[in-house]
Design a protein that fits this description.
The protein is of the alpha/beta class. It is built from 13 helices and eight strands. It has one domain: Aldolase class I (TIM Barrel, Alpha-Beta Barrel). The protein has an eight-stranded parallel barrel with strand order 1-2-3-4-5-6-7-8, surrounded by four helices.
């Protein structure tokens, strides 16, 4: 896994809910062309929770066939049931993943000692593992002390933090101490990614990068270099996108935006999600204009 910009890739569907492979291939070609640093597939943004194992294999085979050896492939394999996580992780290993992204099991609110056991057993399968902390979706938090313990596992290489709380980055870096430089820290919150990286983060796993991948990459690399003025110049036009792509549940607005700019043929989202409420169309159009892509 590289430092820099990782796209949290949407999954394109046809109007009848089937995976749109030609559209998926077009998206991968775009990310390879603009230099996206890593691809994160089959995560929350990909609607992976409502995909079958066969569909996951179809997506992974398609992407690995195009991108393997060119850009690292991070595969979401997290869910509630540890046996399902193991099955998805083994599939990812078999189909060419470079790492996996594992969310803390949602809804059940496991204790921290349970999380340590859970993540450790998944990492024992041998694939480099990124922890995924998103309390707003899971209902529970991976505490800094838990991250510290898990960072000692040879296959646990980083954390995606989607809290948007920049104070947590500072406290975690302090706690990691000498291990900090060897433990990847990715922002999972587009609105604070610029400051996250300027304050010592290693990059992002970004929803906005679906729509403006080159611009997000440029912001992150400027931040990695510590160029504060350039970061502000590049990121300010993207602020409305960072905000408005979440006016409804992710990835609903992002798929509408992707269709609006001709990237997707359909903005279809699988139930229980739905296509975007028309009342938000003006907000997304405004954000796309602000970003300079309309």
């Amino acid at each position: 896994m590289r430092k820099g910009s990782t796209v949290a890739l949407i999954t394109p569907f046809t109007n009848d809910g089937q995976i749109d492979i030609p559209c998926l291939e077009k998206m991968i070609e775009m990310h390879l062309k603009v230099g996206t640093d890593n691809l994160c597939v089959l995560g929350t943004t990909a609607e992976a929770a409502v995909m079958t194992m066969d569909e996951r294999a179809l997506v992974l085979n398609t992407i690995a066939g195009m991108a393997k050896g060119k850009v690292p492939l991070l595969v979401g394999t997290g869910t509630i049931n540890p046996d399902s996580v193991k099955s998805m992780t083994q599939q990812a290993i078999d189909l060419g993943a470079d790492a996996n992204l594992v969310v803390n099991p949602y809804y059940i609110k496991a204790p921290q000692r349970g999380l340590i056991k859970h993540f450790s057993k998944i990492a024992d399968l041998g694939l480099p593992t990124i922890l995924y902390n998103v309390p707003g979706r899971t209902g529970s938090n991976i505490e800094d002390e838990t991250v510290l313990v898990l960072s000692n596992h040879e296959n646990i290489i980083g954390l995606k933090d989607a809290t948007g709380d920049l104070k947590r980055l500072a406290s975690l870096r302090k706690l990691l101490g000498d291990q900090d430089s060897n433990f990847l820290k990715y922002s999972g919150d587009d609105s604070t990614t610029d400051q996250f990286v300027l304050q010592g983060g290693d990059g992002c796993i970004s929803v906005t990068a679906n729509i403006v991948p080159e611009k997000v990459r440029d912001v992150v690399h400027a931040a990695l270099r510590g160029d504060v003025e350039l970061v502000k110049k590049l990121n300010d036009p993207l602020q409305l996108l960072h905000q408005n792509l979440f006016v409804e549940s992710n990835p609903i607005p992002t798929k509408w935006a992707a269709k609006r700019i001709g990237m997707l043929n359909s903005a279809y989202c699988r139930p229980p999600l739905d296509e975007m409420d028309p009342r938000y169309e003006g907000l997304i159009e405004e954000a796309l204009r602000s970003a300079g892509i309309l």
